[in-house]
Amino acid sequence: MPRSSDAAHREQAFAALRELLDLLAHDAPAEQFAKPAAAARAAGASGAELTAIDEATQTALRVRRTLNQHQRREAELTALFDTAGDLAALRDLDAVLRAIVHRAKLLLRTDVAYLSLNDPAAGDTYMRVTDGSVSAAFQNLRLGMGEGLGGLVAQTARPYATGDYEVDPRFQHTLTIDSAVLEEGLHAILGVPLRQGTHVIGVLYAADRTARAFTPDEGALLSSLADHAAIAIDSARRMEETRAALVDLNEASQTIRAHSEAMLRAEDAHDRLTDLVLRGGDFTEVATAIGALLRGGTLIHDADGTELARVDADPRTPPAKAVAASRASGRAVPLEGTWVCAVLAGPELLGSIALTGRADLGEADRRLFERAGVVTALLLLLRRSAAEAEDRVRGELLGDLLSLSGTPSRLAARARRLDVDLALPHSVFVAHSEAASRRLLLSSAARAARTRQGLSGLHHEHVVLVLPADDTGSRARALATELTQAAGAPVTVGAAGPATGPEALAQAHAEALRCLSALRALGHTGQGADLPDLGFLGVLLGDDTNLDAYVRRTLGPVLDYDTKRGTELVHTLRAYFACGMSQSKAKDSLHVHVNTVVQRLDRIGHLLGADWQSPERSLEIQLALRLHAYTWATTSP
């Protein structure tokens, strides 16, 4: 009977795990994932089996959240790419505006979306198109510059968001605006500017009838849509202007035709670049396409100035003043024969692109180059989202690894999915900076870990990296230099290892923390080291102290010299320090002439270095002499 009961319990546990997989496969609601554990508990499953089922349930929920995040991001980016294609195909201004507003409503999944255009003659901005609105007063609203959320966006050319407009004191409330917003029932509102060059032509909004906070990703996506929308509006207006000019100005037909061809070429180039990104093209492919379209060399850099791609151009750092000027104006700017364009997502600087060899860039090609910047922004946003998702997964694994959460086999399996082999020795590094922001330090550490097939994340309020083992001390020093340059402020790195397996890595993490504390206490800010690098202090702080290794590092050349030549330099050192570093007293203790003592000390200085009698070095040497005497006494017969 007990065997039959055990078999039934195991079958129940297997059934629960299969049910969890079925729930994942069918994208079931989160609350249904508790049912397998409840069923196993009701069937009398053992505590170990219930624990395993609970762990599997938590893992399944994490996988479900990750999958939902990827699906949401994929849907948003697909909608954004579809928007670019749809807008590029439209020519009628009204159709363009309706498409923009409808796509904004779908893209952000809000109750209402709307668009206002600026009226330079009246000095205000007026509601042009709405989607989801039910209030006539709201649909005919006009806002003075600086009034309400929309008037403030139109005036300052900056995006604004509110979780509940009615009670938000940041905005200039008026009776007309508040009444219309109240009649429409809106609470949460996000508005971003529609810009053409340095001019704001209107505002694009997304709003909900319930109070909530808009995320930075939603702001960036709506800003990207607004950039595409501004291009489409510009194209539609220019096409209307072209048609009017054809009717009214027959004598200008050749100029208009050339202008139309340039616009069509720009639109075609924009479509080609967008399609390239949609098909998964990388930065080099985009740079190659831009260079081919504009007949020049191309460089792409991220916001930190790191080169992402370079085609037919010499290496160079992005000129900070030119990037700032392009960011402020919204246009590409020339600099000594090179054109520079800031890559933006709304107000956020994502990077820059540079075009070389085209000092004669005309207006049409300049606009084409600027459109290439918009497409590059889409690619950077896509890659950043993917990198952030991977960094979150790596950070979760790092936390579980150092907290010993989960079985070693499961932790190893999760690590293999990230191309990290925990069966190999790894070292642990803990980074700290008083001046650099934690967000910047964390992102710099994540970049360093990805390039070395390691892990990084925030663990117990410290930035921690687990990297394949090499020379731990040298790696710590190199990492401190790298992170200091990336963060723009001194970064101190304590290290320990190598270690293999979760338990050993957790112990190494504790040792790395002690090493970091020692470095900070000693004033070694901006440096990296492991405990052996700290000399006798490392001996005192280490859990698994190797005294022989310390003696060899400190006295090795002298020991080898005595062994090879049969001299008594070690004995001379002991006598010299025992006599208070007095040569005359040492010669009496050794029963030799003082010149012999001087010669031996000169030889020791040659072997150990000129600073061997400095306070810090002499302290380490005396400790090593005592350890050597202790080791010799305990090992001799």
How much of the polypeptide forms β-strand, as a percent range? Answer: 15-25%
Structure annotation, total helices: 22
What portion of residues is helical? Answer: 55-70%
Report the count of strand segments: 16
Counting helices, strands and paired strands, the structural category is: alpha+beta
Question: Tell me about the biggest sheet?
Answer: 6 strands, antiparallel
User: What low-confidence regions span 5 or more consecutive residues with pLDDT below 50?
Assistant: 633-637
Describe the global form.
extended
Average pLDDT works out at 80
Give an account of the 3D structure.
- The chain is α+β, with helices and mostly antiparallel strands and 637 residues long.
- It is built from 22 helices and 16 strands.
- The chain has helices at residues 2-25, 35-42, 47-89, 93-108, 136-139, 148-156, 175-184, 216-248, 253-278, 283-294, 320-329, 363-402, 408-417, 438-451, 472-487, 502-521, 536-541, 547-565, 569-578, 583-590, 594-608, 615-635; strands spanning 112-119, 124-131, 142-144, 160-162, 188-196, 199-208, 297-302, 307-311, 333-335, 338-345, 348-356, 426-432, 455-459, 462-468, 492-499, 528-530.
- Strands 3-2-1-6-5-4 form a six-stranded antiparallel beta sheet.
- A hairpin with a 2-residue loop joins strand 9 and strand 10 (338-345).
- The longest helix has 43 residues, at 47-89.
- The chain is extended, with a radius of gyration of 34 Å.
Summary of the model, kept short:
With 637 residues, the protein is an alpha+beta fold.
